[in-house]
Amino acid sequence: MTELYQKLEKIVSEKYISDDLIVRHAYSRNVDPVLQGIPDIIIRPKDAKEISEILKIANEENVPVIPRGGGDCEFGGSKPIGNGGIVLDMKRMNNIVNLDEDNLIITVEAGISWAKLNEFLCHFDLYTGCMGPGSGMTASIGGGISHHSVGGGGCAKYGACTNQLISLEVVLPTGEIIETGSQANKYSKFPFNRFGNGPDLAGLFCGDNGIFGIKTKVSLQVFPRPPFADYKTFMITRKTVEVSSQIFKEIRKKGIDVYDAFYIPDIIVSTGTELGMFPLWENIKRKRGVFFYTIEANSEKELKSMVNQLDQIILQHKVQELGPEISEGNYAKWHYTEQGHWQTYHNLWGLLPAFEPMTAECFITIDLYPQILKDIDNWNRENSANLQKITEIAGFPPVSGTGPILLIDGNNVELTCGFNSFNSYRDGKNYEIIHEINIRLWKSLLERVTKWGVQWYMMGEVVSRLMVDIGAYNPEFYELMKNIKKTLDPKMILSRGKFNFWNDK
Ligand SMILES: Cc1cc2nc3c(=O)[nH]c(=O)nc-3n(C[C@H](O)[C@H](O)[C@H](O)COP(=O)(O)OP(=O)(O)OC[C@H]3O[C@@H](n4cnc5c(N)ncnc54)[C@H](O)[C@@H]3O)c2cc1C
Q1: H helices of 324-406, where?
Q2: How many other β-carbons are positioned within 10 Å of the β-carbon of residue 197?
Q3: Which residues pair with 220 in a beta bridge?
């Protein structure tokens, strides 16, 4: 047992620290299957004070610390880059701190999951608006704020979860504990507003991918769930990508406040149904791309009027409206009433055994995604020789393309595209060539998509470094970010190596 381990053990007690090989390996990966980094120590603190002490020791010993929530990052964000360091698991900090029902603000510890938080809120007829990411059954609020997550329901109406942020308690990399927004005034008794008392310091930590500080408490706005809702699902019969983009655009132009609007592409609908993921579409003969929406209202009259406007937009295209019940194909109803928003993506990730999805999830404007998807088809053709090598070993061809596309803040969508390949372990053998091709092609696809000017939000190891390596950052922006990092974290303790911020002194 190292001296470092003994010092840390004194802070959290022996129950909440481990350097066991199995535990270290369990924390060596995120959801992405190809990036690995084995930490030396895993620690599970109970509060900001313990985290502050841990960070002070890490600074003394010059050891990197990687915060981890649910570990659902798809780009290697919550595990070390290379081996070594301390993974700081936030999931023990999962308590509701306070519900301010008068002011509609909830304060929670950052390790709580979106599902646990919303389960608590539903007893008060409240919800978080944006329900966090599609991984919300396991993903934490702290991870969501660190990524600007969006997608787990309500994202067309409420946008990314950071839009709901009121205030943060953050432990800075050198151990100081700060509070943002209204809490900058020491006389303020409770968090109530994000902006004011100086610049928006909470914004510094939103989407920082865990490099500027450890979020320990989060105060979010909450909303009364409207009493009326409707949900409709359509099969688009031709040119489904282009038609979905037109429908999204028209919804925004008419200013209709949809709660969710999704497009599920042809290949996902047909393959997913074949593999048993969408039993509700089994009886539909020609399976094409699906478009669905959910809308909420405070009265029946308001609901009817909005549904009429939406139907006018959608039915002018060649679409087939599916029946109102889930059993008749109404995916939108399942998505809204049965928390399908937290289940869809989990199913997709496990669609085939030994599947290795290497995604490129990003934000982009509605008008650009059809062109990006065409370019991914081109990329696929250009890389056919490499893809063929994997096919020969795996027996199946890797597939590139898109997952569901969803309307988010403004005129933007969240585009889930990428490349699905296979694991390098087959029939008891490790085919290193598959791993090597997977990583090379993943980076090549990410570079291609970056050059469309997309906005990455969840960046982890691979995207944060790729942006620097291919020179995609505006140099002034990158320099400012680096200077802020150096000021807050002179030894680059927190998430060392992300954005190529190394301790190279
Ligand atoms: C099935 C599936 C569906 C998904 N769907 C979506 C989706 O719809 N939308 C979407 O945006 N993403 C989605 N994701 C990606 C990911 O789950 C989310 O971005 C999620 O918000 C990550 O939360 P987490 O708690 O798992 O974070 P982690 O992966 O543990 O961490 C994410 C990043 O935040 C840092 N971090 C974590 N907690 C803290 C903290 N308290 N303080 C400081 N830094 C911290 C980590 O170091 C890391 O850089 C999905 C993933 C999966 C597997």
Answers
A1: 331-337, 344-349, 369-382, 384-394
A2: 14
A3: 106, 165
CA-nearest of 230, 181, 231 to 206 is 181
Q: Which two tokens stand for residue 203?
A: 């914004």
- For residue 418, which amino acid is it? G
pLDDT tens, 266-306? 989 998 899 888 999 999 888 999 999 999 999 999 999 99
Q: What is the SS3 assignment for 338?
A: coil
- Topology adopted by domain 352-461: GMP Synthetase; Chain A, domain 3 (3.30.300)
Query: Model pTM?
Result: 0.97
Distance CA 85, CA 467 (A): 24
Task: Provide the pLDDT for residue 505.
Answer: 63
Is the pLDDT higher at 31 or at 331? Answer: 331
Q: Is the pLDDT of residue 352 over 80?
A: no
* pLDDT higher than 70, residue 419: yes
Q: Which of 244, 297, 249 is nearest to 266 (CA)?
A: 244
Q: Which residues contact 351 (CB under 8 A, 6 or more apart)?
A: 271, 272, 275, 277
The fold for domain 228-345 equals: Alpha-Beta Plaits (3.30.70)
> Under DSSP, is residue 405 helix (H, G, I), strand (E, B) or coil?
strand
Token output for 470: 């291919």
Residue whose structure tokens are 């669609």? 351
% of the chain with per-residue pLDDT over 70: 100
| 91 pLDDT higher than 70 | yes
- Rounded-to-10 torsion of CA 13, 14, 19, 23: -100
Spatial contact of 310 and 258, defined as CB atoms under 8 Å apart: yes
Q: Whose CA is nearest to atom 12 of ligand 1?
A: 133
pLDDT at 350 over 80: no
Say if CB 205 and CB 213 are below 8 A apart.
yes
Which of these CATH numbers, 3.40.50.10540, 3.30.43.10, 3.90.1200.10, 3.30.360.10, describes 3-91? 3.30.43.10
Q: Quick one: which atom of ligand 1 is closest to the CA of 113?
A: 25
**Apex CA 379: angle with CA 238 and CA 473, to 5°?**
110
Dist. CA 474 → ligand 1 center (Å): 25
Q: State in words which class domain 92-224 has.
A: alpha beta
Find the residues whose C-beta lies inside 6 A of ligand 1.
30-31, 66-74, 77-78, 90, 110, 133-135, 139-140, 142-144, 146-147, 149-152, 209-210, 214-215, 345-346, 349, 458, 495
Q: Select from 52, 72, 496 the residue to mutate for testing ligand 1; criterion: most ligand atoms less than 8 Å from CB.
A: 72
Could you tell me if residue 181 is left (phi over 0), alpha (psi between -120 and 50 degrees) or otherwise beta? Answer: left
Distance CA 219, CA 191 (A): 7
